[in-house]
């Protein structure tokens, strides 16, 4: 699925659609948010998290690396790995304890955690273009294929 987001609100709206169509199976769901600085990764995560019920501000966890949101029926794990120097540093964060049922992971800069993250269900690739952001949602698992199918129906 490809989307051309002409504004921040377009990107947030896609995040909200992802939240509204996420599988309700209770399985761990993992989104990789990929793109250069300023491509809209955090904006998309904000739209998704607010649609799930986060009432306060949603900022990139660039300095804390991980923010947890205990929401109705799901715990969202928002990670920004931009400042990670070595993927091994993820072990010290205790992420494995949040890799269970009823958890949703949003991982910015997933390539920096290579080999230490669960496999993605959806890869969301964001690219900056003049006047817009190109967003491509790619399934990477059976759960991701189901999720993308529901997203396409909406």
Fold-level CATH name = Rossmann fold
What's the helical proportion of residues? 25-40%
**Form type:** globular
List segments where confidence is low: pLDDT < 50 over at least 5 consecutive residues.
none
Describe the sheet with the most strands.
Answer: 7 strands, mixed
**Strand content bin:** 25-35%
Estimated radius of gyration: 14 Å
* SS content category: alpha/beta
Q: How many beta-strand segments?
A: 7
The CATH superfamily label reads: P-loop containing nucleotide triphosphate hydrolases
> How many helices does DSSP assign?
4
Task: Tell me the strand order in the biggest sheet.
Answer: 1-7-6-2-5-4-3
Task: Determine and state the CATH class.
Answer: Alpha Beta
Description:
- The chain has 154 residues and is α/β, with parallel strands linked by helices.
- The chain has one domain (2-141): Rossmann fold (3-Layer(aba) Sandwich), CATH 3.40.50.300.
- It is 28% helix and 29% strand.
- It has 4 helices and 7 strands, in the order E-H-E-H-E-E-H-E-E-E-H.
- The chain has helices at residues 8-21, 41-52, 89-93, 142-153, and strands spanning 2-5, 29-34, 66-71, 74-80, 103-108, 122-129, 132-139.
- A 7-stranded mixed beta sheet has the order 1-7-6-2-5-4-3.
- Strand 6 (122-129) and strand 7 form a beta hairpin.
- The two termini are 12 Å apart.
- The model has no long low-confidence stretch (mean pLDDT 88).
